[in-house]
């Protein structure tokens, strides 16, 4: 009996398939020949001639039965021969079973459906309790290029009318689908198409569209839509007001955002914690923490409890302002009231302390996260790895990447960019390119940041041909070269003296509509000045102005430095004056460049005056300032009178704790024309001071003594300089106080009589004083003893 039933079932299916196949192959002229199915109007498709085929068999009923029986294998076999007209009529008969229709079109596939059938299916599926299936189908229709947005809308309207549905929910879903696809223009088009049909979207749909416009920073469009909603009397909700408050905050209109709360309340809406959080976040993002605190207090005054997001915004604002102690204190209060910080809040604190250079505290917050069961994110590791690279702690950064992998977290594009940039800054091109290859092998697409770093390191390694080749490869890919990438490539060519190529790239930028900035022009100006083409660099400054690019202090300092190196101090000071007129105050680099130029022109007195001006304006001279002045004073006419000043200047380079003794020059030594050996003396002072600063406690630094200089020819100073340089690089300087004193014991005995101790000048003294060698024995460096000690190594009196 069972075999007989199976045989009958197979026979029935075979006969049904044959009928369907015959019909779809065009054996019935009324179905396939009279009217093209895709062009047939609905009334033709519903005509009796289509319902009654072969006088006995109703094809639509057979297909409907196959669908209801879930006979997907049969349907799959005949799917390529099913006509749109047949599918449309079958869907119409299944309009009361949206779940079955959903399964049918999924099994059948989009390729078998024309836009009319697809829209009918979507309208039917939209009748399900959950909107998700219909929403997914609409997103596929929009993204799959089935038809234009307007055509899809029109076909949905026809399908809705065909099924006699009063609900416009499917049209709302179309707007939402456009929003989820981040296509605001299509969503707005649907909004106005609905309005033209006399239909109003739900407020939830409008809120989603407003939210998308907010995310896309299209605030003006958001206000237009909000006004249209008001005109159409689409009643706002608290969510609507929160979105518009957010729009105001993004526009920087914080007072209006604050006033909007009163407007809400006037309409009978109570602000929520989200409302206040939005405004607090707005104030914090603009650095207006006092205003954020006022909103915070008002919030609590109205009985609305702050949540983790509230505290997170305030902590983020404090960290951005580098008020880290206050941020940490607020974080402590947050945990006291049992609010659980998010990973984002921890990352904010970690970022703040990393930027400050306090990696110890940054890592302690990471450890606290782990203890409290809050999983560190990829962003957590990215912040820490970046900070380690900034401090040159490459090995620790590598260990952190390994730890990250051990926690099951894969590096993202940002991680790779941090690593590649870090190794590029170190000059390790091989490691950087290995990471780039690894990035590609893992399917992570490099960004413009990635390629900019690689171009940078190639430029610093004088591998500009490779940099150009890499740039050409990028242009052919989806990554579009941006301003920063062009600047890196131009910098590489300028750094390596390829100015023609650098200026060609400027033209390429113009051709690609990438506007240059002040960095672009500053780089080109520096390249020209490096080659002594200062007048051409000056022409670039004028070109910047013509193009509406404002020069900055670097632009002016570049020209000042260029003119100063040429000794053209008249033009250097002209540029300085223009800089002042443009509202830029001179910087330390400005003063150093001018002092260096004056010194090279043997204008030491003028340089000294500039130093006084510099100090009066609150600048602290650095090594470059002092060495330029020493050189300038040494070249001046009043060398003997300047000796004490030079000594004080040299001591000042190394801080107030280092004292330099007054030089006792023998009367018979002729100083005129011998400033070179005086400069060699300054090198000697520098080297001894540098060694002392790293090898001895600060209390011992008060005893650097140079004495009886000048009892011989100037060659003594030249040899002395060589001795100390050789000694420094071969680590022959004693490394402890005791060994230094032992080595110099003969020198100390030379001053057993305190009255013969040399005079000293400290930077803070106006007159020399005697050093009590018995009470406080100094570290004495006797040049003659050092010369004698190393004369043999140097091959005699060279």
Describe the protein's architecture and organization.
- This protein has 44 helices and 5 strands.
- The N terminus and C terminus are likely disordered.
- It has a domain of 161 residues.
- The termini are far apart.
- The protein is mainly alpha-helical and 798 residues long.
- Helix 18 runs antiparallel to helix 19 and helix 33 runs antiparallel to helix 34.
- The longest helix has 23 residues.
- 36% of the residues are buried.
- It is elongated, with a radius of gyration of 41 Å.
- It comes from Tetracentron sinense.
Structural topology:
Blueprint: H1 2-24, H2 29-32, H3 42-45, H4 48-51, H5 59-68, H6 72-78, H7 84-93, H8 98-108, H9 115-125, H10 132-143, H11 149-162, H12 169-180, H13 184-196, H14 203-215, H15 219-231, H16 238-250, H17 254-266, H18 273-285, H19 289-301, H20 308-320, H21 324-336, H22 343-356, H23 359-371, H24 378-390, H25 394-406, H26 413-426, H27 429-441, H28 448-460, H29 464-475, H30 483-495, H31 499-511, H32 518-530, H33 534-546, H34 553-566, H35 569-581, H36 588-600, H37 604-616, H38 623-635, H39 639-652, E1 660-661, H40 675-695, E2 704-705, H41 715-729, H42 737-743, H43 745-749, E3 759-761, E4 769-770, E5 779-780, H44 783-790
Helix pairs in contact: 5-7, 7-9, 8-9, 9-10, 9-11, 10-12, 12-13, 12-14, 13-14, 14-15, 14-16, 15-16, 16-17, 16-18, 17-18, 18-19, 18-20, 19-20, 20-21, 20-22, 22-23, 22-24, 23-24, 24-25, 24-26, 26-27, 26-28, 27-28, 28-29, 28-30, 30-31, 30-32, 31-32, 32-33, 32-34, 33-34, 34-35, 34-36, 35-36, 36-37, ...
